Amino acid sequence: MKPVKIRENIYWVGGVDWDLRNFHGYLTQRGSTYNAYLIIDEKITLIDNVKHYLYDEMIERISAIIDPSQIDIIVQNHVEMDHSGGLNILMDRIPNATIYTNANGIKGLKLHYKKDWNFYEVKTGDSISIGKRTLSFIQTPMVHWPDNQFTYCPEEKILFSNDGFGQHIASSERFVSEYPFSIVMEEAKKYYANIVLPYSKQVQKVLDLAAPLAIDMICPSHGLIWDTYIPELMAAYKDWAYNVTDKHRALIIYDTMWKSTEKMAYAIQNAFENLGIHTKMLNLQFTHISDIMTDVIGAKFICVGSPTLNSSILPTVAAFIYYLKGLSPKDRIGLAFGSHGWGGQGVPIVQHLLGDPKECGFDMLEPIKYQYIPSDEDLKAITEQLQNNISIKLEEQ
Length: 397
Ligand code: FEO
Known about the structure:
It is a single chain. The protein is elongated and about 80 Å long. The mean pLDDT is 97. The protein is of the alpha/beta class. The strands form six sheets. A seven-stranded mixed sheet has the order 1-2-7-8-9-10-11. It has helices at 55-63, 81-93, 103-113, 181-196, 200-210, 230-241, 260-274, 289-296, 315-327, 346-355, 376-396; strands at residues 4-7, 10-12, 15-17, 22-23, 26-27, 32-34, 37-39, 45-47, 73-75, 98-101, 118-121, 127-129, 134-139, 149-153, 158-162, 217-220, 246-254, 278-283, 299-305, 308-309, 312-313, 333-340, 363-364, 368-371. It has two domains: 4-241, Ribonuclease Z/Hydroxyacylglutathione hydrolase-like (Metallo-beta-lactamase, Chain A); 250-392, 3-Layer(aba) Sandwich (Rossmann fold), CATH 3.40.50.360. 35% of the residues lie in helices and 24% in strands. α4 packs across α8 (289-296), α5 runs antiparallel to α6 (230-241) and α7 packs across α11. The N and C termini lie far apart (55 Å). It binds MU-OXO-diiron. MU-OXO-diiron (FEO) is lined by residues 78, 80, 82-83, 144-145, 163, 221-222.
């Protein structure tokens, strides 16, 4: 349990959660980290903290550098318990330390832990000196909770971004430069899609606030430290925050009971392929909804298929659509499709959940429903009809 030096007198002292596989519904197949950073200056400063069960790991790392009771200042950039569980334990050991956070941070920490710690409220533009270094604060509300903030150290050109720019990756490597870049970007995209996406408007503001800063290193609270590829990361965040989608990408997401809805899914794929639109087939029996969300970033067409089950839709499809709605991707073209036996309620339900402005609010193509098993001719007709509808819709765009 060794600390990792990231600059002279600045150390990573966080915890690695190798076993984490579920982060409130998000499949974290690579685990995660909770990053905390220790700055040795005239005021010994700890930025962020860890989940409660990794407290001992953090303390072991800190103790390899200093006696933890020497910590003067804690900068708490976020209230959520993956970053404050350890704080609650640490404060019993250093009750006189001052916690620097914003008004929402103070309120949230008090509501979580019912403790009257030594709080110092900061706002965007406030700075403190910790000796040779300055720490300035930028409030970043809703990236990811109302209390989030970034902390910037101009002397080191380091941005401590908490949830912003994170990725759920557990590793012994600490820096992006040490890890396969394509995997880091894929996990950063998945993290954005599953955590940050509903707050894209706020991310736009944060990117504007961060733009004038000279940044050599970004230290997030999850995953690897960005010591390289920062322009690429910023460009990707800009695309994601401004909802850049590609009219030539379609997702076909479905579950199937007796394979009729699946046959329809492949007929739908043919329609897109005939128009030169890239497709991805995502069977909900085999694909996790949080992985589908990564593909939702950037795809213009979101097609969802379900057979009718008990006058409703399959539970896998319902779970996906409700998860999708919560993450609130905008300006997509939707398609509802599926097979049924008699009642046929499934497709209208999907149509409503994707198209209604109070639900996902997508611009919908004509729904496609079929009773029982479509023949080869029926499937050809589905392809041809849909191809026409897609072409008309694209002309309207
Ligand atoms: Fe990593 Fe919003 O907590």
